[in-house]
Design brief:
The structure holds 2 protein chains of 2 kinds. Chain A is mainly β. Chain A is 0% helix and 60% strand. In chain A, strand 6 and strand 7 form a beta hairpin. Chain B is built from no helices and 11 strands. The chains are: A mainly beta, B mainly beta.
Chain lengths: 109, 115
C-alpha cells in the first residue's frame, strides 16, 4: 500500500521496451517482487530480486534495484500485446508482502 | 489441487447480510494469506495463518471481519453485517513456508459486491 509507490499508467508501442518504476520505503526489505495481473485473473509472480543484487535478467525481463534510492524498475523488452496487464511492485515485510497500487500497461499496435 | 482455489468467484449481497468466502490452498502449504483489493488499488493485507493459527490479523479492518482455518488447510473469511464499502475482490494466497525462500501463490479471488 502506502509504502510502495508506482506510476499508475504506461502506454507503449508493440515491439518497444516498457519500463515500470517503483519506490519503496522499507530499507530492510530483503526481497522485492514484480507481480502481473491480467483482467479477471489472480496475481502471477513475474520475478523477484534479492536486496544484495543490483540487477536480475530473466528472458525479456530486467529488474534493476537501486538500494540507496529505494528504487526498483522492471524493463520488458520487445513488448507484446499479451503484456497488457497491471503490474504490481511488492516488498517483503517480514512474512507478508506490501503492494503498490499497480501500473496499468497498455500495449498499442 | 493444482493451484489456490477460491469460491465463490462472484458474490452479490445486500447491505447487512452475512457472507462467507472460502479458500482452498495448494496442498502442503502451511502459510495462508487473505488480501483485499479495492478497485484501482493494490492488494491490502488482511490476515496471515501459519498452520491453524492466525499469526497476524492486524489487517482486518474491524470486528465484522473474521477468518478461520480449523484444520490447517481450507480457510474461510467471514464478514458480518456487510457494508457497501466492503465491496472488493478478496484474494487468498498460500506459500510453502511463508516467505522464507518461497513465493506467494494467489487464487483468482472472490469478487464481493454489496448493494
Amino acid at each position: 500500500g502506502e509504502d510502495v509507490e508506482q506510476s499508475l499508467f504506461l502506454s507503449v508501442r508493440e515491439g518497444d521496451s516498457s519500463v515500470i518504476n517503483c519506490t519503496y520505503t522499507d530499507s530492510s526489505s530483503t526481497y522485492l517482487y514484480w507481480y502481473k495481473q491480467e483482467p479477471g485473473a489472480g496475481l502471477q509472480l513475474l520475478t523477484y530480486i534479492f536486496s544484495n543484487m543490483d540487477m536480475k535478467q530473466d528472458q525479456r525481463l530486467t529488474v534493476l534495484l537501486n538500494k540507496k534510492d529505494k528504487h526498483l524498475s522492471l524493463r520488458i523488452a520487445d513488448t507484446q500485446t499479451g503484456d497488457s496487464a497491471i503490474y504490481f511492485c511488492a516488498e517483503k515485510d517480514d512474512y507478508k508482502l506490501s503492494f503498490g497500487a499497480g501500473t496499468t500497461v497498455t500495449v498499442r499496435a | 489441487g493444482a493451484g489456490v482455489s477460491q469460491t465463490p468467484s462472484n458474490k452479490v449481497t445486500e447491505k447487512g447480510k452475512y457472507v462467507e468466502l472460502r479458500c482452498d490452498p495448494i496442498s502442503g502449504h502451511t502459510a495462508l494469506y487473505w488480501y483485499r483489493q479495492s478497485l484501482g488499488q493494490g492488494p491490502e493485507f488482511l490476515i496471515y495463518f501459519q498452520g491453524t493459527g492466525a499469526a497476524d490479523d492486524s489487517g482486518l479492518p474491524n470486528d465484522r471481519f473474521f477468518a478461520v482455518r480449523p484444520e490447517g488447510s481450507v480457510s474461510t473469511l467471514k464478514i458480518q453485517r456487510t457494508e457497501r464499502g466492503d465491496s472488493a475482490v478478496y484474494l487468498c494466497a498460500s506459500s510453502l513456508k511463508g516467505l522464507r525462500g518461497g513465493e506467494l501463490f494467489f487464487g483468482e479471488g472472490s469478487r464481493l459486491t454489496v448493494l
